[in-house]
Design brief:
Elements (H helix, E strand, L loop, with lengths): L1 H12 L13 H13 L2 E2 L21 H4 L13 E12 L2 E11 L5 E11 L5
Parallel strand pairs: 1-2
Antiparallel strand pairs: 2-3, 3-4
Length: 127
């Protein structure tokens, strides 16, 4: 129950900012790129939200931020020197996509942490 409450709080604190601002990409290519972004995640067909929802407790393939950075939240709340994103899972209901992933922040060799991120994305307009 604490996990669900934490996720609800995160949804309100870190809304998807719609960073698809690049004028060099056409709406069709942004939509195709977003579909490629989702292809690297697993479909969440479970009724529970736990560590596996966010990618598990071991390092898996990290998200290519150069390629998919426009779909990740801005690190306004993190001043780490290095941020890595681990793929988790996603739910889709109509035009609404909810993506679960882990964010690994590393500031130096002595300070690093991981937090669980939930992105709510409305697939309208250019997505």
């Amino acid at each position: 129950m604490k996990t669900i409450a934490y996720i609800i709080v995160i949804l309100f604190l870190f809304p998807f900012k719609g960073q698809c601002q690049s004028s060099s990409l056409q709406p069709d290519s942004i939509s195709a790129l977003f579909q490629l972004f989702l292809n690297d995640f697993t479909v969440n067909d479970r009724k529970e939200i736990d560590i596996l929802t966010f990618g598990g407790d071991v390092f898996q393939q990290m998200i290519d931020t150069d390629r998919y950075g426009m779909f990740l939240p801005e690190p306004n709340d993190c001043d780490c020197s290095l941020i890595n994103w681990q793929q988790g899972s996603f739910l889709q209901k109509g035009d609404v996509v909810v993506v679960f992933m882990e964010r690994f922040c590393q500031d130096d060799e002595f300070y690093d942490y991981c937090d669980y991120m939930v992105l709510h994305i409305q697939r309208t307009g250019i997505l």
